[in-house]
Amino acid sequence: MKDAKTRVAIIGGGPAGLMLSHILGVNGIANVVLERQSMAYVASRIRAGVLEYGTAELLKEYGLADRMLREGKAKNGALIVWENRPDFFIDLKKWTGKQMWAWGQTNIQEDLHDMLTASGAKMVHEADEVALRDVTGNPSVTYVKDGIQHRLSCDFICGCDGFHGPSRQAIPRDVRREFERVYPFGWLGILVERPPLENFTYAYHSDGMAMAAQRNPMLSRYYVQAPITDRIEDWSDDRFWEALLRRFPNDLASQVQTGPSIEKSMAPLRSFVSEPLRWGKLFLAGDAGHIVPPTGAKGLNLAFSDVFYLSRALCTHYLEGSDHYLDCYSEMALRRIWASENISWRLTKMLHIFPDDDPFDQRMRESDYDLLLGSEAAQKALAYEYLGLPFED
User: Fold this and answer.
1) What is the model's pTM?
2) Domain 2-52+105-180+270-367 coded CATH 3.40.50.150
3) CA distances from 312 to 111, 120, 198, 319 (A)
């Protein structure tokens, strides 16, 4: 077995793990990233494209926003269109004075990888059989690379390895409290090389939700609500476009530029939180500790807020000799997590058709939307949540 040592072992080479590695590296804190997949596989994953104000500011602070500012698009809000009711715009600029950004996770992943490579950061891809050892004592991580077993001793382990990774499982079952809601539908999404609509758009329709998003000026992402039992093969491009355009009002549907899909996927919807996010010297961040339905555009943003709190805690430990932020990391991060779960759940409930809904549920959904149309207080509150809550001091 080959032995090595670092200060922080980061499990997971997605954007959360790489962003944490970058921030620690900038502050002179040695770390190693272990990723199960190849770099090409990680870079090819198509994910979120909406950045909260705080996420965009974090990218700016750490030198990762140049391409976003050049090629991305600042957004003042998002549009909700509703069958047989007026449209509603979540007006971030009006109510908060701030903006979000249309900028894809794939681009962030590329920029992070390039910056870490240039700085000489230690990243190990295709690390198999990753296992966490003695997380409450003298922690280490073992893994196999190219048939050789390695042991990485460290001060702390940061689990950024997603919902199916080993990090969360290292917290004993009698300690973990898991909260979950699995939704009876998914989002069938396609990527098409056509100009996007002007606004991120949610459409409520009696057939189910539809959504228009964007990746760049010539790349659009569209979604329709579909039964989770459906297969991708069940949805031809023609069937998808017919469903999407039917769920949009005519004036909006006429603006959609259809075309052959270059990627198609079915995303299940789940709300999930695991508490606590710390056990001994193990800390969870991102999807390892929580999942949100994509309706609120919170998944990547929530992972980056975890990274903000966790990097601050580790930097304060090493640079100032204080463990205050390490000790309150789980509690502080969970407050923001549950707030994001809340808005994601409310938007999901309001904009989707649930198969077991009755007429009472439908009236409540309509009442929620009517409140948004008629109440400036409700509009301001939604804009504040949609923009993303500020990071706690």
Assistant:
1) 0.95
2) no
3) 22, 22, 36, 10
